[in-house]
Amino acid sequence: MTYLSDRHRCEFAIPAVLMQRVAGVILEPGVKEGHAEVLECLDRACDEPFSDLPKAKADKLRNRVMALQGELLREYEDRPVITVFLMVVIWLRDALEDGTLTLIEGSDFDQAATCLIDRISEYDDLVDGAYNSGRKNAIKLAQKLEMRGYYQGRAARKVAA
Is the pLDDT of residue 75 over 50? Predict the structure, then answer.
């Protein structure tokens, strides 16, 4: 297996952890079919980058990512969930497009993200009104992550593209 630094492990967990927070608000397990499975996929995706580490080390890194998630999403607590969802999805889409992230086809996160993104189509009227705000906040999210040392060089890759 390829060596992964602590930072790289956190970078692999961050998208799933951000998506998990939003999914916990918009999904209705027990009410709508497939929602419980999506949440389970996200749980596994959040843990996957740390699964080969000793428990104490894995817990330390999980706590680091959860603290970062809380810090990044705190200012959006009172915002409409569609705005926050779009922010995370747009940030993820941009990171995939510019090569910052790679999504492993068929992985737990791939399955969960695909389901959540497909769910947007149910709310086209809300999406239309919130897209610009989501886009603006996705840019801020990327900047905040890079300022904290995650996904370094992303801005340079975007300029070169």
Answer: yes
Copy the structure tokens of residue 47.
Answer: 């843990």
Pair of tokens at residue 112: 């969960």
In this structure, which long-range contacts are made by residues 118-124, counting pairs with CB atoms below 8 Å and at least 24 apart in sequence? 119/26, 120/85, 120/86, 120/89, 123/82
Do the beta carbons of residue 44 and residue 140 sit within 8 Å?
no
List pLDDT tens digits, range 149-158. 999 876 545 5
Measure CA of the first residue to CA of the last residue in the chain; give whole Å.
Answer: 30
Pairwise CA distance, residues 86 & 101, whole Å: 18
d(CA 61, CA 131): 32
**Residue 128 tokens, joined:** 């239309």
Res. 160: pLDDT tops 50: no
Give the tens place of pLDDT for each residue, 21-72.
988 888 877 888 888 998 999 999 999 999 999 999 999 999 999 999 999 9
Task: Tell me the two tokens of residue 121.
Answer: 């189509």
Cα–Cα distances (Å) from 86 to 27, 34, 64, in that order, read 15, 21, 24
DSSP state of 107: S
